[in-house]
Amino acid sequence: MKSLKKVGVLFTLLITTLAMVGCASTTTEEKSTAMKTVQTDKGEVEIPVNPKRIISDYYLGEFLAVGVKPIIASPYALNNPYLKEDIEGIEPMNITSSETTLEQFTAAKPDLIVTITEADYEKYSKIAPTVYIQDGKRSDDETFEYIASLVGKEKEAKDYIEKFLQKAEEHKQEIQDIVKDQTVSIVEVWPQQIYTMGSHFARGGRILYDLWDLKAPEKIQKEMVDGDKQYEVVSLEALPEYAGDFVLYGVLDGTDPAFVTSSNLWNSLPAVKNGKTLPYEQVSFMHRDPITQSKQLEIFIDFFEQFKE
After folding, report:
1. Does 261 score more than 70 pLDDT?
2. How far apart are CA 100 and CA 234, in angstroms?
3. Nearest to 292 by CA among 205, 170, 230, 175
4. Which of 61, 36, 305, 263 is nearest to 173 (CA)?
5. Beta bridge partners of 47
6. pLDDT at site 33
7. Rounded Cα gap, residues 102 and 2, in angstroms
8. Burial of 176 (0-12, 13-18, 19+ CB in 10 A)
9. pLDDT tens for residues 174-184?
């Protein structure tokens, strides 16, 4: 009789345990398929509360900064050296054609697509819930926080931003004391073209002009820092008007910059003669994600501190 009672107790415990496991499985499944409504640049969209299979055709660094790894990302973002430690296992977008991209996305069975390309929104929306983020509509920090909110990482984003801004502020006075009334400019060499930028087109301009309040040459300051112009293509002959006392310059991958850097005009610029130039990797500086900006901040601090008296 005691044996029968013991068997009965064990059977009851087994049934209870199985029931609990079943409840847990249901709860987990419900959690993974639960949806929430978010406001996007295309109106309200329902997305998973906890998306697991994310595709992003641009905003990779924003996801990686809060510990979220998309399954497919832009090959241009994946080429960013500052992200290389976190991209293992991410598949590059097949950009051979729009058809190959759609085929790849469909086969991947994503539960969320985040895109910067309005023209692709409708096509992507037929594959999975899609969030279109209009480029330039938000500040870099606002974009980062918005993307983090899609995956429930708002606190992580706020902490990251706070740490970045605090470091920039800690060095602001030091950098201003070094630069004084000298000007800083950003120059980029493309095939037979020279671009100048201010604070609206990545390349670290936000740090230099917005966070540290450094000044650019008059033409850049007026139109591309105080104004809304993103960049300007200038001739080699006009470069002295746009070149500051400090010059940051990048070269588009595969471009021979000799038509600029071997010219007498370039080598006669005060920044070049005084050794106040900072070459940068165009493939990384073209991005505005929080990881890239944090790295740019470190590079700028090291660069300007060389000229500390």
Report:
1. yes
2. 37
3. 205
4. 305
5. 36
6. 74
7. 66
8. middle
9. 999 999 999 99
